[in-house]
C-alpha cells in the first residue's frame, strides 16, 4: 500500500484572505480610476472642463483704476 504525499500548508487561510482583500482593493481602485477618467473626458467634451486664465476672450477694453489702486490701467 502506497501513501499519497500531503502538501504542507503554512498560514494558507490568512495569506489567502490577505491576497483576496488586496485583489478586491486593487479592482476597486481601478474602477474608480476609470470612472474619474470618464468624468474628466465628459467634462472636457461638454465644455465645462479646465479653463486656463490666458484663454479668456480679449475684448481690448482698457479702463482706468481707482485712485488707490496699484495699477493705473486694467
TrEMBL record:
Residues 60-74 have a biased composition (Basic and acidic residues). It comes from the Archaea. The keyword Membrane applies. The chain crosses the membrane at residues 20-42. Residues 50-74 are annotated as: Disordered. Keywords: Membrane, Transmembrane, Transmembrane helix. This is Uncharacterized protein. It comes from Halobaculum gomorrense.
